[in-house]
Amino acid sequence: MRVPDSSPVRYDPRRYGSIDDVRSERIRWAHDYWSGKRGGDTLPSRTEIDPVEMPRLLPYLMLIEVIDGRIRYRLAGTQVVANAGFDFTGRFLDELKFPNRDFYLTCYGEIRENGAPIFGLDHWTYPDGRSGVSEFAMLPLSGDGKTVTHFLTIEDTAER
């Protein structure tokens, strides 16, 4: 698979303190859905996440798995792919040339250590001059309720 050279230029990613800082209704809904799948202090499992229960969010979702400590995109929604400019499904984050790749690798690493979701905001400028902003949520999933094995990630974007 060829990765385009004209990927969006990203800048100014930042993390929020909690879900309370998120404005996106889609992200709030995804967080509520994820929270509803939790069993007390345990993380929801990948098998508990059902796309049929959230069809309006599918274009904005990514399903990510941890393989030998690396972050691999199992699924990238159509809006996420459109924003990236190419389909990165099946690819590892550390091999991609996303401008803020290291920021995202750090976030996923932290989530794997503490099992808590991360919320934030990112901006970017496309090569054609358009710019966008995206709120995001990285929600951990687990096979045993504790060890993070997957992530349900959502990016809610707006073009400006």
In a nutshell, what does this entry contain?
This protein has 160 residues and is of the alpha+beta class. It has helices at residues 25-37, 78-84, 101-114, and strands at residues 9-15, 61-67, 70-76, 118-125, 131-142, 148-159.
Question: Which keywords apply here?
Answer:
160 residues, alpha+beta, 6-stranded antiparallel β-sheet, 6 strands, 33% strand, globular, disordered N terminus
Word description of this protein:
- The protein is α+β, with helices and mostly antiparallel strands.
- It has three helices and six strands; from the N terminus they run βαββααβββ.
- The protein has helices spanning 25-37, 78-84, 101-114; strands spanning 9-15, 61-67, 70-76, 118-125, 131-142, 148-159.
- Strands 1-4-5-6-2-3 form a six-stranded antiparallel beta sheet, sandwiched between helices.
- A hairpin with a 5-residue loop joins β4 and β5 (131-142).
- Residues 1-6 have low confidence and may be disordered.
